Amino acid sequence: MRRRAHTISTVLAATALVLAACGGDDETGADPGAGDGDGEQSEEPIVVGSTLSLTGDFGPTAIIHRIVGEQFVEQLNENGGLLGRQVEWQVLDDESDSAQVTPLYERLINQEQVDLILGPYATPNIIPAVAVAERAGYAIPHHTAIHAPLLGYECQFPGWSMDPEPDVFTSELLFEMLSTLPDPPETIALVTNESGSTLPMTEGFAEQGGGGGMLGIAPDYGLEVVAELAYPPGNQDWGSIATQLRDADADVVINNGVAVDPVGIIEAMAQLNYQPPMLFSLFPAPGPLLEMGPPAEGTLSVSLFEPNKALIDQYGEEVSGIVQEYRQRAEAEGLPYTAFETQAAASWNTWEILTGAVEGAGTVDQEEVCNYLAENGVDTTFNGHLEFDSESNNFWETNVGLKQIQDGEWVMVWPEDRAAAEVAPPRN
Question: pTM value?
Answer without folding.
Answer: 0.80
